[in-house]
Structure formats: structure tokens, C-alpha cells
Write a structure and sequence with these properties.
The chain is an alpha+beta fold and 862 residues long. It has 16 helices and 55 strands. One of its GO terms (biological process) is carbohydrate metabolic process.
């Protein structure tokens, strides 16, 4: 009866105790149902020697639980009814197991392979004195035991003061064989069976020119796994920031709950075992059932993608390093000379005074304010500078001396400041896990403190895994000590998350809480989407890295981080011209678009590969700028409803089995299918056009593509296949300026592609592009466009429109219009509208329009 003591009182969450095979001590188990079809399982020691680490700040709030109802109980089993009446939890105590049943079908079970383990914290051994291992240790413990309490990595010794504290638990996903997520790895979109291979590792590391098709951890980690089958998607979110390993095994099973052998059929099952070095078991089961439900459920826990300022969706030009102000001016002028739009100039580590962040090299960047105001601001462009977390050990460097005086650096196990080697030489590392450090760091962005900065300067957090040259695996030792006396092993994967949080806060504060920040981070964790953008790190200028960038970005996107991109051209090495062109064509149709290169590479501004290649790159970048209204609207959807900007084909076509492993093409929103060319000398590409009832149109030629399934499309170097889905309307700008700010009042074109019912719909989101007024004052427009029964209409889609714009819709293009109309009239004025009709391609173009974007209107086609 003791097992049910808490349950009898109908407390929330339901609590019970269980014994694991691997431990003689007891654990405390809590099971919650959370609103939105989410479940939470927490397992901790009942009476730990000291508190075990529980990840803070990642969840946007502590979720409240719903009441579960007891349907059935006996000495060893409990059946609970969930908020959705067709779902139940079946809990057995010995052996401990939880089954999630939906509509009498087992969807997921926990610990069905009996792999739950939970290593208890232990009192320090007599052999550890003052954080050092003494010789008495070896007299008391044999060599095997010693290996559990200390680990050697080269010359580094990691001492576990309270012994090993790892945890693990298995999840069986019934009927699922396609699993996705757990970035970041240079791997396929579809996660692989690890039975005979390395397991997936989540451990943030600085890996220069990382290896492709490796499951080792690289710069960031999101411990979210999705499983999908035609009728359901589910997710498992493992909230733990220590080093984590994920084993995946897919097998065929006969369901035991069907007693009639004649009705049994073999079903797939994927077993996922999570193992973390420390902390507690804190896992969330996202029950979907659709992919978009999963995205919303995960965002309900960790937040949505921050709405970026519009300029940050333009093109970014970066290099390690633009050497001085004259170099910056020359590159900036080059974009105008070659008529290529761009928005942001970037400065890497060499712009600082000896790698002291928040400073400028007096010789090469002696007048940074002039550079920003006279070169960039004058042309409505921005600047991003690098700000790494390591701080040069130099008593004359104000940031170091203040950090030292206030105790703001991570400590070593003996209590001194942890010191490691990084770009400046000997460095200390700010402890961003400390709220006071984050608050102080945010204040460093004030104009009076950050000399030479202006309102157009934004931030880039690099090396924040954290990277420690000559460190074990080039990172901080696990027994370094953070705020709250937590060891680094507990918080490792959170370090970059916290730096980006502090940086974003600093930029917001700098503006008096009025302006949206832009912060790019290399290291990240669950929830990093709330603070800015992420990129895929130090890739190589090779075709294989262009190819792998697509599944890498798709994986980030379905794990909540929509604002992601890969360095165009490859960071390491010199790209051949064809690769360079193909990478621009791909990057222009991905969320974050930045060209970047290593200091050891040849210069590669977009106009340096000959006139023909410059022309093609210019066209790709200009197309990106014309598509910005659509992209910005997608980011608004990501921000409000958690829909990924860039998404795998299966997300839009969840029942189409052939789409489940597709990773060489993707959807940009609901409307555009993009197929980058990722191999040299290609003349045709094979594209899957999904959906048996769908109609697809060539985005540039307007022609209807009749085939469903696999279609071979001829390609030249000039462009990559971009295909518009029937039933969609895409807003575009009719012309392109030097940067996004030059385009504010440029008119719109609406491009409608008709579906099999000869209808289409789409949205346009519009605000000032830079402030929080959209949020605090509701100053935005959300327009809904529809074409139905030969009427094209515009309506406001959300509340009372408070944002005012002069912009007009100047042209409407309708693809798939089978008959030439006799007249087109605008409602209200009954005014005739000029049009042209292309009978061969069934395209109607309505011209010389002057339809106000912010007002309701209708066009009638007869």
C-alpha cells in the first residue's frame, strides 16, 4: 500500500518509488501530464548526499500538471486515464515500466528493456584531500574502482569527488522505424541504427573541419528526438546538460498484446537509450500526433524562435579577417560596384586589441565609429563583431580586472580561477551560469562602456563550447567549478546557451529595451532559439560539406532552431568556382545566409570568380532579397506557432513513405520546394514531387510540372530547381535595393499557384522590421490572401491592424489559370484591371495595380 500513498491522496504529479536492478537504494519517480498532450517523467534519488543538478532556465516556465484519474490498480500495476480520454498510462512497479497507450495501441514504453540505471552520489573517499588524489586511495581501492572515481584523458585528470553519477533510461517507440533530431552531428537526416556503430554523442566541442558521417558531438546539442510513421509523430526531450550518449536500435517485433496469431503482423520498433554522465532523469514525452503538434509542444516547453530583425535575413559578408577600415570600405564598395545587395559586414578576432573583446585594434580600426557611420550606416547596412567567452589574463584589461575582482570566472577544483589557452593566450572564462555575471556582461554593451560601438553593431559568439586549446578534447575540464558549486560536467552543454542569452540581453538593454537583437552563436542547447541564430561551424570547401549541410540544417530546424545556416563556400580551404556558385544558390534559399572564410584561404568576395559566376551569384542573392517578404512571414510563423522555416519533405507530407528519408531537397515553408545541386558537373537532378493530389509549378518559368513522384529536371549552372506548390500564394518584392532598408517602400508582387480546386491562399507579415513594437504595441500587419472561385481577396488575419505602410501590391501573377478571362475588375470602384495571359503556360498576370497592402480589397476575374 505504501506504493500508492501519494496516489490515494490524488496529488499531482503522481509519485511512487521503485528499485532498479543496478542499485540497492531507492529512487523517487514522478509522472506528470502537462496540458497540450505532453507527459513528464522525473527520477531522482530520494535522499541524495547533496542536491543533484536539475537544468534551469531552458524551460520558459515550470509546466503545471493535469489531473490523472485512476482506472485500475493492484499491488503491482496502475492504469491512469489521461486528459484525452483515448489515452492511458499503464505503470508496473516490479519490474518498473510505463506504457503510453493511445486508442488501444501502445505508442511508447519506458524501461521495457530494463536499462534504467541511476548511480548514487557517494561520500568522498579518504584518499581525496583538498581536491587531490592521495596515495592512501590506492591502498583502499583497487585499480578498477579507481577508474570510476577518476579518469585520465592524456595529461588531464578528472576527479569525481562523489564518485560516478551517471543515469540512463530506455524508450521503446512502437511501430516506428524513422527517427530524427538530436543535433548537432554531420550526419544524415534519418538517424541511424547504432547497434554496430558508434552511438550519437551530445557534447559540445570545438571541432575544426569536422568529419562527415560521424556521430561524435560537435558545437551544439539539442536532446530532442522525433519519431514518425504515417499516422503519428512523437518526441522525446531529455532535459540534461551533461555529456549524453544516445543508442538507437530498430528491429522487427510481433506485438504481444494480440493473442490471435493469425492476426499478428511484424511491426517495426525503435529502442532509444539515453545515457548522461550526471544530473537527474527529466524527460518529456511529446505525444503529437502530427509533426506540427510536436513543434508546438516542444516550443511550449522551451520557447519559439526569436523574431529576427529584418536586416539579419539579408546577406552577410564575413572573413577571418577583414584587415582594416580601408579593407572594409573596399569590400562594401565592391557590392555596390557589382550591383549585389548585402546587409551586414562582419569582423573576426583580428579587429580587437590583442584579442581583448569589446576593444578595437588602434592601428587597423582606429576610428570604428567613423567606419560604422560613414561607410555602413550611410548605406543602411550593419556591422557584426565577434565576442568570445574567454578573457585575456591581463590586469590592465578592464574586463579581466573587473571579472577577477568580482569572482566572475569559472574556478578550478582547487578554488583558483580556471585558466586555459585560447586566441589571446592565457585566458580565464566568464561563468555565464551565474545570473550576476550575465547581468554584468549585458551592461558591457552600453555605448558608454563599449567604446566605438554604435546602434548598428551586433554580436557573434564563437568558441563558446567552451573552446580551450590544449584542454581535454579542446574544452574545459569537467571538474572545473561554476556558480552554485556545480561542476562543469553538469553544465557543459549549457555554456554557449548562457553566453548567447547574456549577449542578446545586452543588445536589448543597450537600446532601452526597444530594439530586437541579432546574435549568432556556435554553441547551443535546447532553448537557444529564443536568443538568435546558429550556424554549422567550421565546414570545408568541399562538395560533401555542401551536401551534408542540408540534413544538418533540417535537423536543427525540427529541433526548434529555425534561424540556422552553413558558411557559404566552406570555411576551410578554397572552393572551386562551380562549388562556390552552387553554395550561394543553396544558401540563398536557407534561413541564415552568410559567406565566411578562413584566414588561410584566398579572397573570395562574390565577384572574384569571373563575370559569368558573378552574374549567377548576383541573381541568387537578388532572388533571396525579392523573397524576403515570404521569408520574414515564415519567421513570424516560427515565432508564433513554432513552424520551422526550413522543413523536411515528410513534415509537409507525413503519410508519404518515400519522403521519410529525403534529405537532398526540402520545403521552405509550405509553398516552395528547393533542391540544391550538391555535386559537380550535374546536368539533371531527380526530384521527388510529393503528394498524389498536388500540382507543382516551376517557380521561375511558371510552367506546370505534370508528374507526381520522381521527376528528372535538366539543370544548368545558372540556377537550382525551385518549385512552387499549388494552393499557395507567395509575397515578393518587385525590385531589390542595396540592402533590406532600401526596400521598405518597394511594391509587392503576389504569386499565386492554383491547386486542383483552382484555389490558393497565403499570408504576408509586416512590421517595422527592427523593434519590439510588434509585441508590446501590436504594431504589425498580418494579411491573408486568397484566390477562390475567381475572386482574389486580401483580408486582415489577426486583430486590429496597427501598423501603417505606404506599400502597394503592384502585380499579381496566377499560375495554373486554365482559361483566359474577358475582364478583371477591382471591387468597390468596379475599375477594370490590365492583364496579360500566357495560354501556353496558363499564366495570368494582373499589372499596373495599386492595391494598398494594409487594406481589404477584392479582384473579380470573369
Amino acid at each position: 500500500t505504501g506504493i500508492y500513498s501519494a496516489i490515494e491522496e490524488h496529488t499531482e504529479p503522481y509519485q511512487f518509488w521503485t528499485r532498479t536492478k543496478l542499485d540497492t537504494e531507492t529512487q523517487h519517480v514522478e509522472v506528470y501530464e502537462i496540458e497540450g498532450n505532453i507527459f513528464r517523467l522525473k527520477i531522482n534519488e530520494i535522499t541524495p548526499l547533496k542536491p543533484r543538478y536539475e537544468v534551469p532556465d531552458v524551460l520558459i516556465k515550470e509546466p503545471s500538471s493535469l489531473r490523472l484519474t485512476i482506472l485500475e490498480k493492484d499491488a503491482d500495476k496502475l492504469v491512469l486515464a489521461c486528459a484525452s480520454k483515448d489515452q492511458q498510462l499503464h505503470i508496473t512497479i516490479n519490474p518498473f515500466q510505463i506504457q503510453f497507450v493511445s486508442k488501444d495501441e501502445m505508442v511508447l514504453s519506458i524501461n521495457s528493456n530494463d536499462l534504467l540505471y541511476f548511480e548514487q552520489l557517494q561520500p568522498p573517499l579518504l584518499g581525496i584531500v583538498g581536491g587531490e588524489v592521495q596515495n592512501t586511495w590506492r591502498a583502499e581501492k583497487d585499480q578498477d574502482d579507481l577508474g570510476l572515481w577518476e579518469e585520465k584523458f592524456g595529461n588531464f585528470l578528472d576527479i569525481k569527488a562523489n564518485g560516478p553519477s551517471s543515469i540512463g533510461l530506455d524508450f521503446s517507440l512502437h511501430g516506428f522505424q524513422h527517427v530524427y533530431g538530436i543535433p548537432q552531428h554531420a550526419e544524415t537526416l534519418l538517424l541511424k541504427n547504432t547497434s554496430n556503430e558508434d552511438v550519437y554523442r551530445l557534447y559540445n566541442l570545438d571541432v575544426f573541419g569536422y568529419r562527415i558521417h560521424s556521430k561524435m558531438g560537435i558545437y551544439g546539442s539539442v536532446p530532442l528526438l522525433l519519431a514518425h510513421k504515417p499516422d503519428r509523430t512523437i518526441g522525446v526531450f531529455w532535459l540534461n546538460s551533461s555529456e549524453t550518449l544516445v543508442e538507437i536500435t530498430t528491429k522487427a517485433v510481433l506485438p504481444s498484446q494480440i493473442p490471435d496469431v493469425s492476426k499478428q503482423r511484424v511491426l517495426p520498433q525503435t529502442d532509444v537509450c539515453w545515457m548522461s554522465e550526471s544530473g537527474i532523469i527529466d524527460s518529456f514525452i511529446l505525444m503529437g500526433p502530427s509533426p506540427f503538434d510536436i513543434f508546438k509542444q516542444y516550443a511550449q516547453l522551451t520557447g519559439t524562435q526569436a523574431l529576427p530583425p529584418l536586416f539579419s535575413l539579408g546577406y552577410h559578408q564575413c572573413r577571418w579577417n577583414y584587415v582594416d577600415e580601408k579593407d572594409v570600405e573596399g569590400v562594401d564598395t565592391g557590392f555596390d560596384v557589382f550591383n549585389i545587395p548585402y546587409d551586414v559586414m562582419w569582423l573576426d578576432i583580428e579587429h580587437t586589441d590583442g584579442k581583448r573583446y569589446f576593444t578595437w585594434d588602434k592601428e587597423t580600426f582606429g576610428n570604428p565609429k567613423r567606419m560604422q557611420k560613414k561607410i555602413l550606416m550611410k548605406k543602411k547596412r550593419k556591422l557584426v563583431v565577434i565576442l568570445d567567452p574567454h578573457i585575456k589574463v591581463d590586469p590592465l584589461y578592464t574586463i579581466y580586472s573587473q571579472g577577477k575582482e568580482r569572482g566572475y570566472f569559472v574556478k578550478d577544483r582547487k578554488g583558483g580561477d580556471f585558466e586555459g589557452i585560447c586566441w589571446p593566450g592565457s585566458s580565464s572564462y566568464l561563468d555565464f551560469t551565474n545570473p550576476k555575471v550575465r547581468d554584468w556582461y549585458a551592461e558591457l554593451f552600453a555605448f558608454k562602456t563599449y567604446k566605438g560601438s554604435t546602434e548598428i553593431l551586433f554580436a557573434w559568439n564563437d568558441m563558446n563550447e567552451p573552446s580551450v586549446f590544449r584542454g581535454a578534447e579542446l574544452t574545459m575540464q569537467k571538474d572545473a567549478v561554476h556558480y552554485g558549486n556545480w561542476e562543469h560536467r553538469e553544465v557543459h552543454n549549457l555554456y554557449g546557451f548562457y553566453q548567447q542569452m547574456a549577449t542578446a540581453e545586452g543588445l536589448i538593454r543597450r537600446s532601452g529595451n526597444l530594439e530586437r537583437p541579432f546574435v549568432l552563436t556556435r554553441s547551443f542547447f535546447a532553448g537557444s532559439q529564443r536568443y538568435g541564430a546558429v550556424w554549422t561551424g567550421d565546414n570545408k570547401a568541399e562538395w560533401s560539406y555542401l551536401k551534408i549541410s542540408i540534413p544538418m540544417l533540417l535537423t536543427l530546424s525540427i529541433a526548434g532552431i529555425s534561424f540556422c545556416g552553413a558558411d557559404v563556400g566552406g570555411f576551410v580551404g578554397d572552393p572551386e568556382p562551380e562549388l562556390f556558385v552552387r553554395w550561394y544558390q543553396a544558401g540563398a534559399l536557407q534561413p541564415f545566409f552568410r559567406g565566411h572564410a578562413n584566414m588561410h584561404t584566398k579572397r573570395r568576395e562574390p565577384w572574384l570568380f569571373g563575370e559569368k559566376n558573378t552574374q549567377i551569384i548576383r541573381a541568387a542573392i537578388k532572388e533571396r532579397y525579392s523573397l524576403l517578404p515570404y521569408l520574414y512571414s515564415l519567421f513570424y510563423q516560427a515565432h508564433t506557432t513554432a513552424e520551422p522555416v526550413m522543413r523536411p519533405i515528410w513534415v509537409e507530407f507525413p503519410k508519404q513513405l518515400e519522403a521519410f528519408g529525403i534529405e537532398d531537397e526540402y520545403m521552405l515553408g509550405k509553398a516552395l520546394l528547393v533542391h540544391p545541386v550538391t555535386e559537380p558537373k550535374v546536368t539533371t537532378v531527380s526530384i521527388l514531387l510529393p503528394g498524389s493530389e498536388e500540382i507543382w509549378y516551376d517557380f521561375r518559368k511558371f510552367s506546370c510540372l505534370k508528374t507526381q513522384g520522381i521527376l528528372k529536371i535538366p539543370v544548368t549552372l545558372d540556377n537550382i530547381p525551385v518549385i512552387q506548390r499549388g494552393g499557395t500564394i507567395i509575397p515578393l518584392k518587385t525590385s531589390v535595393g542595396k540592402s533590406t532598408e532600401w526596400m521598405v517602400d518597394v511594391p509587392y508582387e503576389l504569386r499565386a499557384a492554383l491547386d486542383s480546386k483552382e484555389s490558393a491562399a497565403g499570408e504576408l507579415y509586416l512590421d517595422d522590421g527592427h523593434s519590439f513594437q510588434y509585441l508590446h504595441e501590436k504594431q504589425f500587419l498580418l494579411r491573408k490572401f486568397t484566390f477562390y472561385q475567381n475572386v482574389f481577396s486580401s483580408r486582415h488575419a489577426d486583430g486590429d491592424p496597427r501598423y501603417h505602410t505606404k506599400c502597394k501590391v503592384e502585380q499579381i501573377t496566377i499560375l495554373g489559370m486554365k482559361k483566359q478571362p474577358s475582364t478583371v475588375t477591382a471591387s468597390g470602384k468596379n475599375k477594370k484591371v490590365a492583364f496579360t495571359y500566357d495560354a501556353k503556360n496558363s499564366v495570368l498576370i494582373l499589372q499596373k495595380l495599386s492595391l494598398h497592402v494594409g487594406k481589404d480589397w477584392e479582384l473579380h476575374i470573369q
